[in-house]
What does this fold into?
Amino acid sequence: TDAIAIYEDDSGGFWMGTLGRGVKRFDRRTGQFRDLVNGSKGVPDVSPLGVVMRFFKDHAGTVWTASWDALKQFDPAKERLTAFRPPATKTPGPGFDVQDILSITEDRRGSLWLGTNLLGLINLDPVTGQWKNYNFKKDGPDSLSNSRVNATYVDRSGLIWAGTQNGLNQLDPKTGRITAYFERDGLAGNVVGCILEDRQGDLWMSTNRGVSRFDPRRKTFKNYSVVDGLPGLDLTG
It folds into this structure.
């Protein structure tokens, strides 16, 4: 079984996200592997769509797994997974991949922001189960610059950032307005693969043409390339 994502829990156990075999947990004390089960069926969470790409632990200590068929919440008491799916994708079929979740982050209210392969940016409120989708449109203030979101990040001011396959996007969750930045605005490369914030509040991101440092206050970029010591230009993974 190919393990493509690994997470260590508070008890020292290892969770392994696999390529088509769901989630397995390894207990160090016993040396045993165990399949996590689906909450509705009580059977091992194994399917052709059980490609588990990410693990994420929220502020309450809840662990989420992101697979091709759904976002799943783990109940440690019952050791079961509960699936969350957008209304339009409740019944995935063969070849279903529109919900490939590439990144997960959490805002101050405890809602999750998911970067997906084709569905753009998705906001999920785990308490109400409500979904809100931001995707690419021809025009409009709430349009992403691209439907593939490789990276998501919530900064200290509460703004949501999405690194897409074509541009860096800033979303104000209060207004729903999205501002996009591209190479023409100073971004090193239009494909953004990762976003992090430093102590000064500047954002650092990897792109297909080096690393960019963005000052949100001045809205200016400073870029770094192989000349500055990077091993290569394409750092999108």
Remarks:
- Confidence is low (pLDDT under 50) at residues 89-98.
